[in-house]
Amino acid sequence: MKACLLRSPAPIESNPLEFTDVPKPEPGAGQVLVRVLACGICRTDLHVIEGELPQRKMPVIPGHQVVGVIESAGTSATRYPAGTRVGIAWLHSTDGTCEYCKAGKENLCNNPSFTGYTVDGGYAEYALADESFVYPIPDGFGDLKAAPLLCAGIIGFRSLRLSGIARGGRLGLYGFGAAAHVAIQVARHWGAEVFACTRDERHQKLALELGAVWAGGTIADPPAKLDSAIIFAPAGEIVPAALKALKKGGTLALGGIHMSPIPPLDYNLLYQERVVRSVANNTRQDGHDFLRIAAEIPIHTEIEVFPLEQANRALNSLKNDAIRGAAVLKLD
Ligand SMILES: [Zn+2]
Ligand SMILES: [Zn+2]
């Protein structure tokens, strides 16, 4: 099968993904083989490719926002008939036995595997998944438009939950890429007022089109104090600015898997019971809850489509803030 393979981490400007032929995988016990129709591109892919995350499987096929159809199943995988359209997301498997899994916090599992990082992902014609970790895709979404729901959408949704934003509350979104452009639609559905802080003017414009009451620069002061905020940009220097914009008792959630160092904080920024917390992965429950809500609203994803063999070009665009909404790879 065709795939985009990363042999060793390197800056994306050097186009390190090799479009090549690799053996088509075989489903093992409990697994399904998915024929990939679309795969969303996530900033985490860039962190894997550029070596900002510790190296795990190498070479590796990146990609963890996979939409496809089940082509075949391994032994004891009987949940879905062949032809079912499913999504494969970042959380590929958990042990189910550690203290976190037992406590309903499988996103924090001690022995997880991750799609497109510790196992091969969806920048390929086929991908494997554990049948208990795939998500049926609601009918209302086309294949390409559904892809960004699987990480940008689900992680954005978990970030919203952890930010504690309530109906009628004021929410700040820092960075306005794929995750924020979905999260704003959920937040508005919940009746929140959204303030978008992002350095790129095109992203500010998109935020206003999607119903933000205000959009400005990353460290500009929003015109009202915020109940909650989420930082999606991987830039630790935003943390003091976001804390400064929060009300007393407000929560700042950090939505990314990687962030540059956070500068020393003046305690006054944190005092008055402000909370800073990270967001790590998601539970399957988050995923199923989000996809149900996404279909109800319904969420509209803005996408830029690239053919599989142009994954390097898509990732370069992402790094340069040049994607409006989310980039998606289309398979033939
Ligand atoms: Zn576990
Ligand atoms: Zn992701």
Architecture blueprint of SSEs:
Elements: E1 2-6, E2 17-21, E3 31-40, H1 43-49, E4 66-73, E5 85-88, E6 91-93, H2 99-102, E7 113-114, E8 126-130, E9 134-136, H3 143-146, H4 152-163, E10 170-174, H5 178-189, E11 193-197, H6 201-209, E12 214-216, E13 226-231, H7 238-245, E14 246-254, H8 267-270, E15 275-278, H9 284-296, E16 303-307, H10 311-319, E17 326-330
Parallel strand pairs: 10-11, 10-13, 11-12, 13-14, 14-15, 16-17
Antiparallel strand pairs: 1-2, 3-4, 3-8, 3-17, 4-5, 5-9, 6-7
Question: Would you mind describing this structure in some detail?
Answer:
The structure is a single chain. Helix 4 (152-163) packs across helix 9. With 332 residues, the protein is an alpha/beta fold. The protein is built from ten helices and 17 strands. The relative contact order is 0.17. The strands form four sheets. Strands 3, 4, 5, 8, 9, 16 and 17 form a seven-stranded mixed sheet that branches. It is 25% helix and 26% strand. It binds zinc ion (2 copies). Residues 94-95, 98, 100-101, 109-111 line the site of one zinc ion (ZN).
